[in-house]
Design goal:
The structure holds 2 protein chains of 2 kinds. Chain A is of the alpha/beta class. Helices cover 34% and strands 12% of the residues of chain A. Chain A has a 5-stranded parallel sheet. In chain A, β4, α5 and β5 form a beta-alpha-beta unit. The C terminus of chain A is likely disordered. Chain B has a 5-stranded mixed sheet. Chain B has a domain of 89 residues: Beta Polymerase, domain 2 (2-Layer Sandwich), CATH 3.30.460. Chain B contains 3 helices and 7 strands, in the order αββαββββαβ. The chains are: A alpha/beta, B alpha/beta. The complex binds iron/sulfur cluster. The site of iron/sulfur cluster (SF4) has 11 residues of chain A, from α4.
Amino acid sequence: MALNTPAGGFFASRLDRMIGWARKYSIFQYPFVTACCGMEYMATACSHYDVDRFGAGMPRFSPRQADVLFVVGTISHKLAPTLKMIYDQMCEPKWVVAFGVCTCTGGFYDNYATVMGIDTIIPVDVYIPGCPPRPETVLDGLMKLQEKIQMGGGGQGSGNWAADN
Amino acid sequence: MSVTLRKLKENFGGALFDLGSAFGDDFAVVHKDRIVEVSQALRDDPDLRYNFLIDVTAVDYPQRRPRFEVVYHFFSLPLRHRVRLKAPVDGSDPEVPSLVPLWKGADWFEREVWDMFGIRFAGHPDLRRILMYDGFEGHPLRKDYPVNRRQPRVGPRN
Ligand code: SF4
């Protein structure tokens, strides 16, 4: 049956592509918003920049209904177990976006209270730098995430893609 | 000299280490055991009427003896003036009387000072940490808290 195809055979690889295509345009995100980056998240989500164009217009406030965890804002050590629990409650396949430098690296915080990057706690798929990132950067990150989903990458947070490469 | 400073000097001369005015704001350094009495007088005196406790905080001066200073800011809404009280506290067993019986709003301020500086407030109804989590060791705003010390609850430790 295999007709001139890469690994997996013609039918399976077509099916994967189709599933990837469907998944990348139906991103149900869980916005874990803790700090100032939340304002930029809202700006991106609202009509001017409109994440609905990318099929990500429907935030779910239950982790059990979400595919992508948007971690938006500073994460303190006090909050870290909650973030981990939310991540653990999400069904697979799941992806994580670190939104803003606070979540990427801790940002300008280097103190007793702040987690130095959420990737010390949970796996991250896409890092969006900026303090806060402009909506254009967020959309760039979102498209990187879509690319990754389409290619069947991540899902359990493997590999690291920064939004600017 | 403002009416606040004059009244403080007349009524509590023995309880004051210092008083004056810095950049237009009155301050007085008060013996910590008299702090409740002095702030009650600030609140109840009809010429002063400091009915608003704006803030309670503390400062750690590692070189000084006594080491800590608990700082109170008062404001009078009807008379629109303000004053700062400071109470020096010894570093070995820091404790000051609580202002919660006079101002309910002192509750969380004093918990914050306990959390950050480890200064106890005698008579506080519920002196627990407020910002840091249970199991956190030490008091992070003390100058001798190691600047690199991290106490994560999940993830790598150092
Ligand atoms: S990255 Fe900047 S804007 Fe975003 S949460 Fe941190 S401090 Fe706030």
